[in-house]
Amino acid sequence: xxxxxxxxxxxxxxxxxxxxxxxxxxxxxxxxxxxxxxxxxxxxxxxxxxxxxxxxxxxxxxxxxxxxxxxxxxxxxxxxxxxxxxxxxxxxxxxxxxxxxxxxxxxxxxxxxxxxxxxxxxxxxxxxxxxxxxxxxxxxxxxxxxxxxxxxxxxxxxxxxxxxxxxxxxxxxxxxxxxxxxxxxxxxxxxxxxxxxxxxxxxxxxxxxxxxxxxxxxxxxxxxxxxxxxxxxxxxxxxxxxxxxxxxxxxxxxxxxxxxxxxxxxxxxxxxxxxxxxxxxxxxxxxxxxxxxxxxxxxxxxxxxxxxxxxxxxxxxxxxxxxxxxxxxxxxxxxxxxxxxxxxxxxxxxxxxxxxxxxxxxxxxxxxxxxxxxxxxxxxxxxxxxxxxxxxxxxxxxxxxxxxxxxxxxxxxxxxxxxxxxxxxxxxxxxxxxxxxxxxxxxxxxxxxxxxxxxxxxxxxxxxxxxxxxxxxxxxxxxxxxxxxxxxxxxxxxxxxxxxxxxxxxxxxxxxxxxxxxxxxxxxxxxxxxxxxxxxxxxxxxxxxxxxxxxxxxxxxxxxxxxxxxxxxxxxxxxxxxxxxxxxxxxxxxxxxxxxxxxxxxxxxxxxxxxxxxxxxxxxxxxxxxxxxxxxxxxxxxxxxxxxxxxxxxxxxxxxxxxxxxxxxxxxxxxxxxxxxxxxxxxxxxxxxxxxxxxxxxxxxxxxxxxxxxxxxxxxxxxxxxxxxxxxxxxxxxxxxxxxxxxxxxxxxxxxxxxxxxxxxxxxxxxxxxxxxxxxxxxxxxxxxxxxxxxxxxxxxxxxxxxxxxxxxxxxxxxxxxxxxx
RNA sequence: GCCCGGAUGGCGGAACGGCAGACGCGGAGGACUCAAAAUCCUCUACUUGAAAGGGUGUGUGGGUUCGAAUCCCACUCCGGGCACCA
Length: 822
Description:
Layout: H1 7-20, E1 34-39, H2 50-68, E2 72-74, H3 84-93, H4 97-114, H5 130-145, E3 149-159, E4 164-166, E5 185-194, H6 200-206, H7 214-224, E6 226-236, E7 243-248, E8 259-262, H8 269-272, H9 278-290, H10 293-297, E9 310-319, E10 324-331, E11 342-345, H11 351-360, H12 396-410, E12 414-419, E13 424-425, E14 427-428, E15 438-441, E16 445-448, H13 476-479, E17 480-482, E18 489-492, E19 496-497, H14 499-502, H15 506-511, H16 522-526, E20 533-537, H17 543-557, E21 572-575, E22 578-580, E23 583-584, H18 596-601, H19 603-613, E24 621-623, H20 625-645, E25 652-653, H21 658-679, H22 683-701, E26 707-708, H23 709-723, H24 728-738, H25 755-758, E27 763-769, E28 772-779, H26 785-793, H27 796-802, E29 809-813, E30 817-821
Helix pairs in contact: 1-24, 2-19, 3-4, 19-20, 19-22, 20-22, 21-22, 21-23, 22-23, 23-24
The protein binds one RNA strand through α7, β7, β11, α11 and α20.
C-alpha cells in the first residue's frame, strides 16, 4: 500500500516530541479544571496485544479530548508487576521473576509508546518497586492495627496447580481456579484475611451512587448477596437450656418446619449425635470432607442440588411455633461458613428442603396457599398463610414481621442481615508478591515490622519450586530475624500478599507519587480523586473493582487518606473483549494478534481509528478475515485527508458561494455530532461523521467548480482538530505543515459550532398515507402545524397518491412528517 | 434454575416512537494506464418488472400507537454473570 507520507517517520517524530516536551505532564497545583482519566494498569505480560491497544486507544482519546477542552488531565500509567506468571516463567527458565518482569515491562511500555498513547511517566507506579512495597506494607500494618487485617485458621481454597490459597473471588463457579483451571481443594490453614465484610453494607449501598454499567453494578450486588432474616434458637428436646441457632429469611413459614439441618462442620454436631447414629453421621462427615468443594456446592444441569445426602443425628429440637419435636439431620447442602451453619427446614416452601424431605421421607406441611395451577414441589411465591396459627390469612410480608416479633419474644430471635460476601483472604504461599510485614516472637507474639525497617524485601536467592509451602519459608536468612521488642529470636511471616492488594490503591499513588514519608499526601490526592473516568475490561467487574472500593473506604477510616471521597471511581467504562475464532484473545490461549505489524503498515493512527470505528466500544470485537480490510480502509481515510490537506487535485474559485456555505454548514454540524458522540462513548459514529464530512468537503474541492480557498482551509483545520484525539500523529503533522509556527493541534481548543450554521433553513418533511411514505416536501424547520398540513395536501405527488380520497384524519408532526389517514 | 445483555443487507454496524440500512468492508461496472497497482467516479436489502413502478423486509408470535428496529407481553436462539448462601 503506497501511502502519501512516511508513517513510521511521522509517528516516531511525534511520539518523541510528546515525551521529551512533557506535553502530557500535569502538576498537582495546575489551576485548570481537573480531569482524572485512568486505564486499569496492566499486568506486564510482554508486548501489547489488541486488548491493550483498544483500552489505551479509548483512554488516550479521552486524555487528548479533555485536554483540548481546557482541562488539566491526569493521565498516569504503571504496572501490576507482581504475580504468578512471572514466578512460573522464572522457575522454568531458572531465572528471577524480577529480571523476567522488568523485561516484560519494557516491552509493554515500548508498544504502548508506539501506539502514541501519552502519559505523565514521572508518576509511573509498579508493584515490585521497593518504594511502593514499603507503602503497601505500611497500609497492611495500619489495617492490622485497626483490626481490619487478622490471622485465622479457616477452611480455604487451595489450588494445587498454583500451590497457593486463593480468595473466594478467584475461584470459578465450577470450583476451578480462575488462573490455572485446576480443581480447587478445601484445606484448613492459618491465613491472613482483610475484614471486607465490615464494609458489606456500605459497599452495597454505595453502588447506587456510581455511574457504572448496570451489568457491573448487578454483579457486585449479587456478589455481596445481602439477605435479611431472623436468627433464632431451636431448643434441644433433650435439654431445653441448650439450643441450636439457625438463620432463616422466611420466619413466616415456621409452622412448616419439619426438621432441622446442621452443616458437617457444625461445632454442636458431636453433642447432637447419639451413639446409635454415630456411625452414619461419621460416614456422612467423612464423605463431605473428602468431597471437593466442587461436588458439594456446585450443581449439575438439573439445577441446584445433586442428591440430597444427609444423616439423622438422633437428636430432636423443639419448633417454637408449635412446640413440636422435629429431627435434626446433618447434611452437606448446609454450609458451615454461612449464617449459623444450621437451618430450619421447610420443605413445602424451599426447593432444597423439599428435595431432601423426599429422599429421606420427611413430612411436608404447607403454610402458604398454593395457586390453583400449581403442580407439585416447593412453592416460594406469595400467598396467604394456612396451618400457621396466628399467621393464618396473612400475606408473606405481613407474616414475616409477625413471625420475627414472635421469635424475638419466644426464641431469642434477632432480626439479622447476612451477606454472601466473605472476608478477603490475602495471604499467598508464593514468592513473587509483596511480603506480609509481620514477625512472630516466642515471647512477644505476633508483631508488625516497625516502620523504619520497611520495606521487607525478599532476598534474591530463594528456591521458588512449588513445594506447597511459601518459598520464603525455606530461606533461613530471611525467615530468622530479631524481635525489635525484646531483642530475642523471631521468625518472619513467609507469605506474600495477594496481588489484588497492589491494584487496590495504585490510583491514589498516581495522584501523588511525589510526597515523601507516606504512601501519598491526602491533600494532594484529594485534588484529583475520585477518578473521573476509569476504563478497563469487564473481567474485573467483581475482583479488582470491589477490592479497590473496600481499600479506599478502609484507607479513609484508618487515617491514611483522611477526607478522600469514599468511592474511587465515579464513572466506569468497560470495553468489549477481542475475540478470535469465538474465544477471547489472551496470552494464555496463544491467540494474540500483535499490533506491531500494523504500526509499520497503517500506523498507530490507522490501528487506533480501526478500534474506534469497528463498533460500539462496549461491544466485543470479532477479529476476522474482514478485519484486515477494515484496517486498510481506516488508513485509506487518513490518506485521503493527507492528500486533501495538501490540495491534491483541488480546484479553487474566488468568491464564497452557496456551495461553500453548504460545506461550512456541514463542518459545523459535524462539530456538534462528533462532540456529542465523544461524550456518549459513541466513537464509531464519531469516526463515521468525520468520514462523511471528508466526503463532502473533498467532493466540492475536487469538482471542476472547486472550493473557496479560505473556506476549505477552515474546514480542513477544524477537521484536523476533531480528528486529533483519534489520530494524534498525522493530525499533529498536517497541522504543523499547514500552520507552521502555530502551537500544536493538541494544544488547540476544541472547536465550537456556530449555531447560525447548524440550523437548517429547510428540512425534508415526509408525507405518509396510512403510515406509508408517499412523498417528501421541503418546509422551514419552524413550520406551523397548519402550514405543514397545507404544504402536504397541496403537494402534487400526494394529491395523485390520494386519488381523490377524503382524509379521515391527519396527523401533523411539523417539521418531520404529515400522516394522512384515509 | 435465577439475573443481566443481545439478535437489523453478503459482513462490521447506523437510526434514543417519525424516510430502516448512515459510515465502512466486500462485490459489480466505469475513468486513468501499454498493462497492473494505487487513485477517482457510479451502482449495490430482497423480490417482481423491459422500464416507470409495485410488493416484502429489523429472530418468532401477539399487543399499544395515526405511526414500532425502537415501547409492552409471550417465545426461540446466542453471549455473559450467579448458582445448595437457607
